[in-house]
Design a protein that fits this description.
The complex is a heterodimer. In chain A, helix 9 packs parallel to helix 10. Chain A is built from 11 helices and no strands. Helix content of chain A is 71%, strand content 0%. Chain B has a single domain, classed as Rossmann fold. Chain B is built from 9 helices and 10 strands. Chain B has a 6-stranded mixed β-sheet, sandwiched between helices. Chain B has a 4-stranded antiparallel β-sheet with strand order 2-1-4-5, covered by helices on one side. In chain B, strand 9 and strand 10 form a beta hairpin. In chain B, helix 4 packs parallel to helix 5. The longest helix of chain B is centred in the last third of the chain and has 17 residues. The chains are: A mainly alpha, B alpha/beta. The interface between A and B is medium-sized, with 19 and 35 residues.
Amino acid sequence: MDPMIVATEVKRSWTRRLWLKIPRELRTVVGGFACLVAIFWILVCIFGGALVPHDPLAQDLPRFLAPGRGNWFGTDELGRDEFSRIFVGARVSIALPLLLVGMSMTVGTIVGIIAGFFGRWVDEVLMRITDLVLSFPTVILAMATAAALGASLFNAVAAALIVSWPPYARVVRSMVLSLRGSNFVSSGRLLGFSPLKSMRLDILPNVRGPILVMASLDIGTATLLLAGLSFLGLGAKPPLPEWGSMISAAVVNFDKWWLGVFPGLAILTVVMAFNFIGDALRDAFDPEAVRV
Amino acid sequence: MSEPVLSARDIIVDYPGYPPLRAVAGVSLDIHAGEVVGLVGESGCGKSTLARVLCGLLKPTAGEVVYLGRTLKPIGVAGQKVANTGIQMVFQDPGSSLNPRRRVGPQIQDGLDAAKRRLGGEGAAGAPTSPGDWLERIGMNADDVNRFPGSLSGGQRQRIATARALAAAPDVLIGDEPISALDASTQARLAYVMSSLTLAQGAGMLFVSHDLAIVRLIADRLLVMYQGHIVERGPAEEIWADPRHPYTQALLGAIPLADGAGRLPAVTPPGTHYPLTEAIR
C-alpha cells in the first residue's frame, strides 16, 4: 500500500451530514438564533389560533389590565387579551409579507427576464415603467395606492406589490443582460431554442439563486411595509388582530406601555430574524464574501 | 468541386465607435462538405467576428452568408429557424460553453432533438442516438450524463460542447478557437477529435485558431487573416512549407519548435541560474 496517505474518508452519521448541508453561514450563533426565531414565528403563524388562552376578539376582560398572571401581555382598550391578539395576528402579519414577497419576486423576475432577453423597445418600455415606480418613495406610493383602492388588507397587499416588484425587475434584467451574451445561451439559440425555452432552461435557473437571497432579505421590509399600512389604517380593519394596527391603537393610549411594546417586539424579532437569515444566505451564495 | 455548404460573400463588419472599427473588411470564403478549413490569425484580426457572422449570431454590416444555396438570415429574437440548425458552433471559453445549472445529458439531448426536428425521424443516420453514446464517442464515460459542467475539466467541457454541436447533425461546424483555453496536450487531441468526428458525419468544418502549428495538422485548406482581410489562402501543407505573405511568414516564424536541445529562451535576467530550485528553497 502507498505509504503516503493524502486523504482519509471520514464516516459521518446521517445527522451530521444533514447538519453539514446547511450553509455554514447559518450554522453560526446569530444565524442559528435567527432561524429559531423565524421557525418559532412561522409555527405561531400556523398554530397560533389553537395555542392562545383567550379569544382574541372577546371583550370580556377589564380594560387596560397591566401584564400579569393570566394576561401575560395585559389587555387593550376594549378588554381583549393582548397576548392572544399578537399570536393570532401573526397569521396576518407574517403570512401576508411572505405572500407579498413571493408575488413581487415572481412579477419582478418575469418583467426583468422579458426586458433583458428581448432588449430593444421591449426593454425600453418595461424599464421606463420600472423607473417610474422606483422614482416614488415606496411608503408614500403604497399609501396613495391603498388609499385610492380603499382600506382593506387585500388592497394593502396589492399596493405593496405595486411598489415592491421594481427592484427585482432591475436586478434580474442586469443578470439576464450578461447571461444573454454568454456562450451557452448562444449555443441554445443555434440549436433552435424558442425564446421561451431559452428563458426557461438557460436564463431562469441561473438567476434563481441571487433572487431568492434578495427575497429573503426583503421579507423584513415587506413586514414593515404592511404593518406600516395597517398602522395608518390602510390595511387590516378592526377587529381583525394585526400588529401594525395594534401599535396604532397603542399610540392613542401612550401611558399603557404594554400595548405598543409587545406588538413592537413581535415586529422587531420577525424583521431581524429574516434579515439575519437573508444576510447569511447572501454570504453563502456569494463566493467573494469574506468569511469571518 | 461541389457546391459549398456555407459561403461568405464580401462580409464587412463595423463595430460602432468614432471612428467605427472595421473588424472584417470584405471577406469571402467557401466551406465544402467533408473538408476542414483552418482560419488563422492573431488576436483581434476579426476571425471570431467572422465566425459569429457565419453562424448567424451577428448581423454583418454588408455582404451575405449563403447556406445551402439560400441567404442566411441572422438569428432574431424568435430564435434560429429549424432549417438553419445545420450550422453549429463550439465556442472558445470552456467555462461558459455549457449551462452550469443543467446536467450534461439533457444538454447533449438538446442537440439530438435539434437533429430530429430538422431531419425528421430519428435524426442523422449512423450517429449515436443517446447522450450516453455521444459521450462515449467523444472519449468520455456514459455515466457522465448525470454530472454538472462544474465538475468537469475544461477539455471535457469542450468535448461535451462538441458532442452537443455534432449531435445536431450539422452540415457545417464552426469551431471558434475551441482549443485555445486548453493545455497543449489536450489541444491537439481535441482538435483531432473534433475534426475526425465532423468528417465522419460528412460535414464541413471551419476551425478558427491562432495556433497555426495545430491547425495545419487537421486542416485541408488554410485562410490567413490579418486586420480584417484574408491575406493568404491555399492548401495547408503548401502554406506551411512555402508562405508567401510576409504576415504568414512572421506567423510561422513565431512558432517554437521542439528540437530536443532543451534550450531555454535566450534572454535571462543577469545572475539567474537554471534550474531555479535553489532560488525557490
